[in-house]
Design a protein that fits this description.
Blueprint: H1 2-49, E1 58-66, E2 69-77, E3 84-86, H2 89-97, E4 104-108, H3 119-122, E5 127-129, H4 135-140, E6 145-148, H5 163-168, E7 172-175, H6 185-198, H7 202-221, E8 228-235, E9 241-244, H8 250-256, E10 261-263, H9 274-280, E11 284-289, H10 296-305, H11 313-316, E12 320-324, H12 325-329, H13 335-345
Parallel strand pairs: 3-4, 3-6, 4-5, 6-7, 8-10, 8-11, 11-12
Antiparallel strand pairs: 1-2, 8-9
Helix pairs in contact: 6-7, 7-13
Length: 348
């Protein structure tokens, strides 16, 4: 009897031992599988978040002019440019934001204030001209790339020269898409992305776009509940007020629309009179301040003293604002600073 009991006990213990081994093996297998999944996920995440690298040569579709019309033209880069001329202050600032200050061998058209956070870096760039730079001076800086405002590439004898003439000399060009017709804020993001690709700083470009889109969203959240219709004006320098239609400034219109502010004259052509301003009766008026220009404060005083315009809403309600030329006509990221400033002035 004792022998039978011992035999039965041995069988039970053996069964328990076998079950325990199987459970441990299953647990070990499950843990190993989980570790593999986690490792695979981390690898996948790392691959996804890894910044893209430019593989040269890289070809991008940019712009040139034909018979006064902007058309597409490819630019091929065998390597990242080393010597860059920015034909405007805004273009240089954008290069600085992307970490490319050391590539800049010249800048021109210094018509507005430089953001304080990049002022020291901006001072490192040789100034080719306080105003618009000419072709000879541009070429004299021996650039391998000229980047900037489209209007300065339109004429063979004025500005930096045409795209074709520069390309024929082996100098690449990058016309900011923000400065050609039908531009918008998306054009700015395109410029940043493409400059990032040209210079192989795609991670910098992506990070900066993310920063700007956050500012875009913040401005949209501040938008006026009712549309603010505005008109731009200037001083003709002869005692009269000039009215600016801004019909080529679709980039500015795109940015201003974030706060529900719209240019009433954007579809107008030709010379506009003071009578036209009275007719459209804008809610607000803006005038730009630029280096070397007439003091806008004096122009505003002149406008307010004009008896013809006293019934214009913007004049009656003193909704006349000064904007920085570089913020709006630099065709770069500082457009956000300009619109943010206007939103502050409007109390949005």
């Amino acid at each position: 009897m004792l022998i039978c009991f011992i035999a039965a006990l041995v069988v039970v213990l053996a069964a328990c031992s076998n079950n325990s081994d199987g459970s441990d093996q299953a647990n070990n297998s499950s843990q190993q599988a989980a570790k593999k999944v986690a490792t695979d996920e981390k690898t996948s995440d790392a691959e996804t978040s890894a910044p893209a690298e430019t593989t040269y040569p890289v070809t991008l579709s940019n712009y040139t002019t034909e018979n006064g019309t902007w058309v597409k033209k490819d630019q091929t880069f065998d390597k990242a440019p080393e010597r860059v001329v920015a034909n405007t202050q805004g273009a240089a600032e954008l290069m600085i934001r992307l970490g490319l200050t050391d590539k800049l061998v010249g800048v021109a058209a210094l018509f507005g204030s430089v953001p304080e956070d990049i002022a020291d870096e901006f001072k490192q760039i040789p100034v080719l001209a306080e105003g618009y730079v000419g072709k000879e001076v541009t070429i004299g800086a021996t650039p391998d790339l000229v980047v900037g405002r489209g209007g300065l590439f339109e004429d063979a004898d004025w500005g930096v020269g045409t795209v074709s003439s520069l390309n024929d000399m082996g100098i690449k060009t990058y016309v900011q898409s923000t400065s050609v017709p039908d531009a918008s804020l998306d054009s700015l993001y395109q410029d940043i992305t493409e400059l990032g690709e040209i210079f192989n700083v795609q991670a910098n470009a992506a990070a900066y776009i993310e920063t700007l889109k956050a500012r875009e969203n913040a401005l949209s959240a501040r938008a006026s509940a009712e549309t603010i219709n505005y008109a731009s004006f200037s001083d003709n320098g002869d005692g009269t007020i000039g009215i600016y239609n801004g019909n080529g400034d679709t980039f500015i219109e795109s940015a201003m629309s974030l706060i529900n502010m719209h240019n009433m004259l954007i579809n107008e052509t030709g010379t506009l009179s003071l009578e036209k301003l009275i007719e459209i009766n804008p809610d607000a008026m803006i005038i730009s301040r630029y280096a070397g220009g007439i003091d806008p404060e004096e122009t505003i005083k002149k406008l307010l003293a004009n008896k013809q315009v006293q019934n214009i809403n913007a004049v009656k309600n003193k909704k006349i604002y000064i904007i920085d030329f570089n913020n709006f006509w630099g065709y770069g990221d500082s457009i956000f600073t300009g619109v943010e400033g206007l939103a502050d002035d409007l109390g949005l």
